[in-house]
Amino acid sequence: MAMDGGQSGGQEIIRFDGVSKFFGDFRALNGVDFTARAGERIVVCGPSGSGKSTLIRCINGLETHDAGKITVDGTALDGGRRALSKVRREVGMVFQQFNLFPHLTVMENLMLGPVRGRGLPEAEARALAMRYLARVRIPEQADKYPRHLSGGQQQRVAIARSLCMEPRIMLFDEPTSALDPEMISEVLDVMVELAQTGMTMVVVTHEMGFARKVADRMVFMDHGEIVETGPPEQVFANPQSRRCRDFLAKILNH
Amino acid sequence: MTRIALLAVILLLGGCSADWGWYVVNPQTPAGQTNLIFLLGGLKYTILMSVTAIAISVVLGLVVALPGLSSRRGLRMASRGYVELVRAVPVLVLILWVYYGLPQVSGLTIGVFWAGVIALALSDSAFEAEIFRAGIQSIAKGQYEAAYSVSLSHTDTMRFVILPQALRRILPALGNQLVYMLKMSSLVSVIGMQDLTRRANELVVTEYRPLEIYTILVLEYLLLILLVSAGVRWLERRMQTDAQG
Ligand SMILES: Nc1ncnc2c1ncn2[C@@H]1O[C@H](COP(=O)(O)OP(=O)(O)OP(=O)(O)O)[C@@H](O)[C@H]1O
Ligand SMILES: [Mg+2]
Fold first, then answer.
1. CB A168 within 8 A of CB A91
2. What DSSP element (H or E) covers A12?
3. How far is CA B147 from CA B113, B150, B152, in A?
4. B149 at the A interface (CB within 8 A)?
5. CB distance A106 to A144 below 8 Å
6. What digits encode the pLDDT tens for the residues A16-75?
7. Where are the alpha helices (DSSP H) in chain B?
8. Cβ separation of A99 and B156 shorter than 8 Å?
9. How far apart are CA B182 and CA B53, in angstroms?
10. Is the whole model's pTM more than 0.95, yes or no?
11. Which ligand is nearest to the CA of A29?
12. Residue from A27, A45, A48 whose mutation best tests the ligand 1 pocket (most atoms within 8 A of CB)
């Protein structure tokens, strides 16, 4: 909590030192070193099963790592509860399957975290929710249940739900992969706008147009390792590794 | 409903034959009326006892189910142990033990009603626990993850996200348990509870018309349970439309 909001560009906000993660005998992350600076927009890509989800899920402690060190916003994720809740307080997450709460209205979905997680009074939480719903451009859907919204609208609600926690970091795990093609852009547009506010973002996606437009840095993963990282122009134009070149060729040509 | 009608017709036809003696419960004679009122009076106790017992057993079941889902082995074992133990004891045996045994162990005097309620609730709580466990386990992992990522504690996650959804899913199963409870409550008649079954038994002893009186008893349970089943279905539908806005 050294810096609060503002243009703190440059300060290190996520740091992985030699992080490994096992599922049984399977090594999903293999000694990963990774850093993100405040305000940085990082796009993570790589083949299926390469460990992209595992990497970002380690950032907010949805997965626990087995070796190495993870520090988020000055707090080391050491397996302790206090560290975990401190980190989760600063990190929002958007999932591929939206994971909205189906028994709650959109407004209730948005207010639950602020009221129960942050301890805001209801009125304040409601105003906050309305503000972020307007920002994802669906204020008129506040009283509907998630199942009555389109996929694109649901994912925008999910983004607003995370933003209501006013996090310093936003994680996205393939936010458009479950969407019909015609709804992808409405979600990406919201994410582009979010990037313009200076939010630190780590985005797992294969939307290379988004990466080109928004990413400060690309991270290419394979077999639980970060194989290559660099600015998108460089990675796209001149990938250093063969695996990255093959992968990009595949997704860009299809 | 057509089935009850059919049964009623068969019984009425039976009433015409010489073997039946419906006079014992003929509402047009004073004696028959008294008997009928006596029999129906048991309804109050059957319902009161079952509803009290199910309310307690649902709460108890949840209290048993939650540690069963813990990551701590000791808690899981304790929950498992409770369920296995309670399920292994026949309801009738539990009723007898609570009524005759528990007062001696605890030094408390326990009336027939509460002995019945405690025994029924204990016995049912094991099944409720299993229902809750299955219901909670049916909720997708993503719901927990979304709740955690908006900074909800585990307790709040259960309370506001997981349990409300689980409860909707297990509602039909809870309804079935209530039906089961209404039926099981007839066993409490052995310790003298004035429920439907006990009253039928007592009347048989004085009137010597077991066929008619027990037929009435069958109809009483049948009607009661069909009504409850319809109520549960109505509740289910209502909760579904609620969730749909
Ligand atoms: N809970 C789990 N239990 C066992 N294995 C797992 C688990 N979660 C992930 N894995 C395995 O770890 C590896 C990395 O998974 P991860 O989900 O991080 O890949 P990914 O790069 O996100 O892939 P995708 O593009 O398919 O989402 C995969 O081989 C996967 O099968
Ligand atoms: Mg993934």
1. yes
2. strand A12-23
3. 43, 5, 6
4. yes
5. yes
6. 999 999 999 999 999 999 999 999 999 999 999 999 999 999 999 999 999 999 999 999
7. 2-16, 30-68, 73-88, 91-96, 102-106, 112-137, 141-149, 154-156, 163-184, 196-207, 210-244
8. no
9. 10
10. no
11. 1
12. A48
- Pairing label, strands A41-45, A200-204: parallel
pLDDT digits (tens, 9 = 90+) for B86-144: 999 999 999 999 999 999 998 888 999 999 999 999 999 999 999 999 999 999 999 99
A111 closest CA partner among A89, A127, A95? A127
Tokens in use for B183? Answer: 């039926």
In sequence order, the β-bridge partners of residue A41 are: A201
**Residue A60, amino acid:** N
CA B131 to chain centre: 14
Burial string for A123-160 (b: 16+ CB within 10 Å, else e) reads eebbebbbebbebbebeebbebbbeebebbbbbbbbbb
Nearest CA in chain A to B156: A116
Type and span of the H or E element at A154: helix A151-163
Spatial CB neighbours of B113, under 8 Å, sequence gap ≥ 6: B45, B48, B49, B193
CA distance A230 to A245: 14
CB nearest to A97's CB, from B142, B150, B245: B142
Asked if the C-beta of B241 comes within 8 angstroms of chain A's C-beta atoms, the answer is no
CB count, 10 Å around CB of A71? 18
A100: which residues sit within 8 A by CB, 6+ positions away?
Answer: A109, A146, A154, A157, A158, A161, B146
Angle A95-A60-A167 from CA coordinates, rounded to 5°: 80
Best probe residue, ligand 1, of A21, A25, A26, A225 (max atoms within 8 Å of C-beta): A26
Amino acid type, B97:
W
- Cβ–Cβ contacts within 10 Å for residue B63, how many? 15
What are the tens digits of pLDDT across the range A204-220?
Answer: 999 999 999 999 999 99
Q: Are A153 and A173 within 8 A, CB to CB? A: no
